Structure formats: structure tokens, C-alpha cells
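Quick illustration, no need to memorize.
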Amino acid sequence: MDQPDTIDFREPRRQSEAFIIIECFSLMKKRRDAIGAMVIILLLQLPWQQYYLIAVGFLVILALLAFFVYLSYRNTTFTIQNNDSEFILNKGIFNKSKVFIQLNKITQVNINQHFVQRLLEVYSVEIETAGSVGSEACIKALDYKEAIALKQVLLKEVSSAREEISSSPGTAQRAKNIISIKPSQLILYAFTAAYAKSFVVLFTFLLTFYLNYFDSMDGYREKVQTVAIETWEKLSVWSLILISFVIVISFNVVRNIIVYYKMKIEPDNGVTGIRYGLFSRKNTLLQNHKIQTFRIQTNPLQRLLKIFKVDITQTSLDIDQDKKANITIAGLNEGQANALFNHIFKTVLPEKADNTIISNWRRFILPVVLFGIIPSLTISWLALHGYVSSIHVLLFIIYLLVFALLMKRYYSYYHLYISGPFIVKEKKVWQESYQYVPLDNVQSVIIEQFFWQKALNLGHITIRTAGDRVVFNYGHFEALQLLANFLLYQVEKGNRS
């Protein structure tokens, strides 16, 4: 394989000097909680005439940190060796280490640019393989030209790899195939999805702030608590619910715009480039033949607006831990989702097949008991003893009606079937999900049947790929056995080929 004429990676190369600033910022960011708490304590304890001591101490720590980061910069080199088949990364100050990566094992190369890197006009190159959780190697500071050249060499795609990170124009054919997520699509998606996730993120942020900083604010703790109590007494429950809902929705919109801003999917020969991000620009290049699963998700509101989310999983050692192996594309319309599927798998989305495995009604006993029967008994007891008003009982009845409709929908649309060259798992509660797995990607099949399920002829099946799994519970056991036999036959046939 010929390397680009302008840059020779056969000779050991160093990162840009901007690495020193970036690494210092990164290390301080990791310790921001401890640093923030210490600064707040010093500001509260020291007289203002001695505030300069805080600045002096900070500069001393920063100087020591920069010295060790400089040593790390001098001792970090990377090169391509062994007839251009192996990437080698040398690093370490006192404990030297070498990372060897076979180029044919690389599944994904990400070129990212967070806020500080954008200011310094450098990029990071992250290399991922099927056997790693997260990045196998990361070069944190390369200029544009060197980052692109390294990506081309690593993926052996010099003639067809993407040649741009910024919005510089490509060829007419590439421009035609580019899928762009419009701001209006992203805003519609943000207004209709991921409320729970946004609530958890916001709650975690507030809880972290409280635990780390609130205890050190002795002089202001009582004031904050007094204001909170007065606000709670003045506002009604409905007002608090409405305010909370508006805050979560606003946070959800801002979070999605920051993460997925100007998302573009750039299909090319055998690869798919994805670029997005407002402050931290991410550039991911996926090799289509290493994509394991393709999941399309929506909900009734989004379906009405024709908005979808797509999750793509690549090969990974542990999909639960390796978050970078799961690529999320939010805000696609129906045509864009179909076009992306067609580009990756060279076929159209499969239709629903007749050979559908349906889950038994016993699967739904546990959620009905947890979210239906137990709450009903609790509310009934509280109502009999006068602890809840009639309006609360009415609201609970509405909740039960919505819950019953969702369970009916869940029972009617929990299916597993084979359609063409794909295994498809369909699931609908409020969120609708269609998970597509190419038959060629199946690596193992596990069938389970607990002793109390034998008389009912029920069982569970788990279908594993190199980067994801499909789990289907409470199916007809004989139907699951037939499916497993067929899939294992496909696996064996593929191994022999």
C-alpha cells in the first residue's frame, strides 16, 4: 500500500505542540470537581486581601503539570511499520509502553475536534478495533492535513476515503448522496424524544453540584434552603409540574442541538462518514461491512411528524461498556433512514414476514403487577383512609387507562421474524423499535427454558453478533428451536465458505 507522498508515516512522528495545552486542559477537567471545591473553600475562608495566594498556587500547580505533560509529548511517537501493515504507538515518561495495532483489525477511525482543539486548529484521531472497549489508541493533536492522511493509511482507503473534515465542497456525486439533518428536524426530534434521559442528566448534574459544592457554602446554605421552601409554598403542585416539564423540554432541546448540530452522513464506496457537534465536532468513518446491527426507533408523535432515530452498532468486545461502538443518528426523516439502510446493506428495508414468532401473554405479568396492580392497591388504600383527594384518584384512573393501552400495544407488537437476509425484532410500547441483524453477522445462538416453562412450552432466545445481541423472551419453544437450527446452519455454512 502506497502512503501519501506528502507525509511519510514510516518514520516516527510526534503530535503537534498544541498537545501540551490540550493535555493540561484535559487533566484539569478531570479534576474539576476537586479543584472547584478547593477554590470555593479558600474563597470563603481567606480574606479578600489574600486571594492572590490562590492565583499563585494555581500557577505553580499548572507549571508542574505542564512540565510533566511536555515530557509526555517528547516521549510519544507513532509510526506505520512492517510493510505498512501495523500501527505502532510509543508513549510513557517513566514506564514506557508500545501499542501495536494490525491495520486489518481496525473497525473505526474517529477524527474529533472538541472546543479547545477548534481554538488551536488541531484534531484528535481515535483508533478502534473489534477487540477493544473504547479507543485502542488516540493521537490528540494533529493538524488537518496529517489527520486526514493518517486516517487514509489506517483504513487503507487512500483512493476513496473522505478528504474533508470541514464543509469544503466535494464532488457532485458525493454532494448528491450527502444526508443532512436540518435544524427543524433536530428540534422536532428534541421536542418529542428522550425526556427521561434528559431528566436523568439534569438531575445527575444538580445532585453532583449539591454533593460537591453545597456543603462548602456554609454562609449561603440557609439562604438557599429558605428560598426553596418559600418557592415551594407559593407554587401549586400543577405549577411545579409545569415548570419542571418546561425545564426538561428546554434542556432536552439544548442538549440535542449541542450534540447533533449540523449532522451530515456522507455515504461513499464501502464506508459511511458521519460528522456532527456544535462545540465538539466529531468525525466518524464507519466501514459498512463491519456494521453489526441497524435499529430504527420512533414513537407515535415522531411517526406523525415523520421523524426517526437510527442506532448503528459496530464490532466490539463489550457493547455494554464500549459506548463508541454504538453510533446514534437523530432526526432522520423516513426517506433518509431508508437511504442510509440501502447504502449500508445494498438493499431496501425488508417487509414484515409471515413466519413471525409472537411472545406469550405471560411475559407481561411482571410489568402489569409492578405498574398496574401494586399502584392500584396502594392508591385504593390511601383513598379509603382519606390521604388522597378525588382529583388524584381521577388522575390515577387516567394513568391506568394509558397503561392498559400501552400494554395492549406491547402485546400486539412484540415479534421476531426473518425477512430476506435479516433477522428482525419488532417492539412497540410507546417507543417503537425495529432491530435489523444480517444473517451473516450471527455468531452464536442461545436457547433457554426454565423448568417451570417446560409444561407451557415456552423459552427464550439470544442471538449474538460481534457487536450486539437480540434477546426475545417467552416465545413458543419449538418455534425458537427451528429458528436456532436455521441460524446455526447459516453460521456453519458461512464458516465453511
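The longest strand covers residues 106-113.
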